[in-house]
């Protein structure tokens, strides 16, 4: 990194590498040097494509060399580490479609002709879905016939590049063993490849045709069944990236039109898949008659599908998949070359019932837990160098739908606040110095201003779920602490207000009394932190056990040092914890808390922000139509200007906005102010102003007689003074005296 940084500051790429690059001097070392420098520029958020735009003549050859090197099978030519560098450069290219030079090269890889990599039956099926595509497809074949042999071969390589890259990745993935030593170069290659696939799926220009190719390759199924996904330590980040890829492959959007799909449309797609499978079973597979004659709701769960298709042989499963255009036809007399586990997972994952994105969001806990807070793949530390990839959504120039835009911001804001929460927890808990006592319990050797040991914790209410939901409507608990501290700190704790967010923490230290904590070592292992759950203050309880309501009256002074707070727990998190306890026999988290931590109010508004974003995502209409595409990064930004809108409002009542006619004239410099009343005495506010109507691309809209407005009319405002708005009964409808 130090070498790259020095090369970056010396402009090694601009002053030497690219300015001297040509096909004659191109070599592996030259190619890799350019790739490393471009990647380093992106890592340090420095503009990377400017030098290529200044000297673009050799960029097509350079890009072609990148594509060829990415598909090399022999590690002796390009090692996996070097090919990972190439993958990262390709990822930067696909995310830089706003650059004309890059887009001219990339669009050859992601346009409609890339469907030539599909199976013939799958291609025919896709063309039937959208009839107008067949016209374009026939036109592409006619143009191919006019090409010479060299051009046809080049087009063939470009169109099949991503499909061939996927097959190469699958071969690398299958070479990773289930256990034993593992090459980390292979792991990093797989992680970067999934990141590349994720970025291709998360942008509409690249997703439109690529999503079908990705689905036809069954990449997600191969990944979930791979050895790397089963390795808990090395495959942790890989699995997180894979979950994100699976989410985007099934995103609720029409790939061709870019329109967001409603819940009913997604349900229709699911039912169409199940019924097509039932028709295939009824017509060709007698052993599946029970499945074919069942209603959809009875057979579309994963357990039901595994139970029905599990007993079938590999050959029968292959034939079913072939009938659905998922796999090539199985020749007569031959056995399937696919493993039964793969064939079963292919059919089940494609036809199982899906949970809508809104349902997933509504079931998501808003407070971070210990699994998220200390997961550096999604919440990196302050020492993150940018070398590896993260399982985080990216804020690009374009988004798939408004739901996608809000969801990415929701997740990123949630994780950003989690980073701050982690710092506060580490600071407060380490100050309390939890140690292992002689009797096996916890003893605190220090104290913290923002945290207190819990004397008792009791869940006092679990309300029934709302109709259509499977989590409690409300979960409340009482937390008792002993405020045997200085008066100013005691006042701060007693000053906790309604809706303030606190965190309940369980620590089980393993270090004996007096052990010093090393901040350079991992925090969780040293402290023995086990659980973290969030809660929201409802209020402090009085001596009779009632919540002290906030109001103008002073709070009552309570005797002693014990204080009990009524708190709201996260219903979604409580449901998940209780389900885990009942089904898996896990420990009841809510019987273990021994620390409560508060935060500074100014830094503690994350829950309200997340709730607001979630409520927006549950709303049908969030932004007007004229602003919708602009937010998503499509169309012309100037189209949102009032002069381009078809429903312009010509006349507006400005009420008491202007103090006088002179104030109005000063507010519209360059306009001719035409007052309907000539007498200066009557030119008093409030004013009603009529504006000229703009139309077309900045041109004035034609009048009814067909004549265009004159330039002086376009700069004229008609002012009607002394207009009394109809505000209701007396005295509001009377003029000022």
UniProtKB/TrEMBL annotation:
Query: Which superkingdom does the taxonomy of this entry point to?
Result: Eukaryota
The Basic and acidic residues compositionally biased stretches are 701-715
UniProt entry keywords in alphabetical sequence: ATP-binding, Helicase, Hydrolase, Nucleotide-binding
- Parts of the chain that traverse the membrane: none
Q: Where is this region: Disordered?
A: 695-737
State the InterPro entries in the record. Answer: Aquarius_b-barrel, Aquarius_insert, Aquarius_N
Q: Which intervals hold domain RNA helicase aquarius beta-barrel?
A: 433-599
Any idea where the RNA helicase aquarius N-terminal domain is?
Answer: 10-354
Give this protein's Gene Ontology molecular function annotations: helicase activity
Q: Does the keyword Nucleotide-binding apply?
A: yes
User: Does this UniProt record's set of keywords contain Plastid?
Assistant: no
One Pfam family here: Aquarius_N_2nd
Q: What is this protein called?
A: AQR helicase
